């Protein structure tokens, strides 16, 4: 799949951003300042990914200029800079990924480094920004304005973009394994359908529960979060070495596990996936 993954990622990112902007304008024009403010607030967590991109620049010995800082402030850093310059010998852009993939067929180490950095930053941004926006717009469509076309389109594109962020990350981890080539398009499509269905049903279930029982949804989500966090701690993952950061990592990933499963340990994951679904269903 020569450049197909970054090309589709870029397309979905642009579509999602455009739909989010339309939703913001929609609420502002209709005078729904509450939903307008909440939609704007969903943008704030996305600055974590922008900050990480800036920190990668500084860690590599590059001082970000004013123009680059402005791009990150506008949350366009993923378009401009998505990786560590020490790996690539310079800035990494979505466009660089596409050009390198076209030249090498997507299998060279440089392309993998670029693709990996883009996937990590995009997954972080999707979980922190796209997921809250999806929950908010889905609630508006289900409980407030069932005929709302723009919130519905924004929710649909956010769901697809989030699912694709998970798929592209899985695609990258698959390429890292020795002897593994890029999976065929049918496999990527099946992964996308699986992620979309899993995320869509969980979001819909939470939204419907929130509509019927209001704030009790936070109690249900909180119990699930605690169970997943303790379970992750019991697995003794070694991604983060320091104890304090290790606990924080488990807590954050436990919140993500309310919606989807992300494999954080090497080796077969069938047993862990079975436990995840047994607890979540």
UniProtKB/TrEMBL annotation:
Protein name: XK-related protein
Gene that specifies this protein: Xkr5
Entry GO terms, CC: plasma membrane
Major place of residence: membrane
Subcellular location field: Cell membrane; Membrane
Membrane topology listed for this record: Multi-pass membrane protein
InterPro entries named in the record: XK-rel (IPR018629), XK-related_scramblase (IPR050895)
Superkingdom field: Eukaryota
Keyword Chaperone: no
Keyword vocabulary terms for this entry: Cell membrane, Membrane, Transmembrane, Transmembrane helix
Segments passing through the bilayer: 33-57, 138-166, 186-208, 215-234, 246-264
Organism of this sequence: Chloropsis hardwickii
Listed Pfam families: XK-related
